[in-house]
Amino acid sequence: MSEQPDPMMARISVAIEQSRAGKTVAAAAESDAIWAEIGGAAGDPFHRCVQAITLLCKSRASIRRCT
């Protein structure tokens, strides 16, 4: 059985890498778009959880480094 890459996880990873590279505006825009596509709090539980953690880290970045 071959596993297919998860496109949403790939996008979340790209947004994280953008943030790490200092491209915070692009990362924030992509994170918000991903959250909307997932369906926010009513979306797919796995993607919602991963993206919520990413957004939490983004909002707490000035307090501690999450990545």
How do the helices and strands line up, and which of them pair or pack?
Layout: H1 7-20, H2 24-38, H3 45-59
What does this protein look like?
This protein is mostly helical. It contains three helices and no strands. It is globular, with a radius of gyration of 12 Å.
Give me a quick take on this structure.
The chain has 67 residues and is mainly alpha-helical.
Which keywords apply here?
67 residues, mainly alpha, 3 helices, 66% helix
Proportion of residues in extended strands: under 5%
Unreliable stretches, pLDDT < 50, 5 or more residues?
A: none
Order of helices and strands: HHH
Share of helix, binned: 55-70%
What overall form do the CA principal axes indicate?
A: globular
Instruction: Give the tally of β-strands.
Output: 0
Structural class: mainly alpha
Give Rg in angstroms.
12 Å
Tally of helical segments: 3
Report mean pLDDT, rounded to a whole number: 81
Q: What is the distance, rounded to the nearest whole angstrom, between the alpha carbons of the first and last residues?
A: 32 Å
Major beta-sheet overview: none
